[in-house]
Design goal:
The chain has about 90 residues and is an all-alpha fold. The chain is built from three helices and no strands. The longest helix is centred in the last third of the chain and has 23 residues, at about 60-80.
């Protein structure tokens, strides 16, 4: 893996994790937490969206949107499993 692609993965992960944290829980999870949620979300988004028939295009913006959608799905799944206690009940 080239150093540039690793840097892109890290930047996309941080941005997507932060965006997902803002959308779902109303706040971020710190730099490392946002990175982890964003990278895992990128894998989830990369798996779910093509199966749903959605293609967002190519490029860094499409990657951020894809990873953010996956990260939101991840955070919603965590919220459902935990019962909403950690981030508060907003539903």
């Amino acid at each position: 893996m080239a150093g540039q692609s690793l840097l892109v993965i890290i930047v996309v992960g941080i941005i997507a994790g932060w965006l997902a944290g803002e959308l779902v829980a109303g706040g971020g999870f710190g730099l490392i937490g946002d990175l982890v949620i964003g990278v895992i979300g990128a894998f989830i988004g990369g798996w779910v969206l093509p199966r749903a028939g959605l293609h967002l295009g190519v490029g860094i913006v499409a990657s951020i949107i894809d990873a953010t959608i996956g990260a939101v799905l991840l955070l919603l799944a965590i919220r459902i499993i935990r019962g909403g206690n950690r981030w508060g009940r907003r539903w």
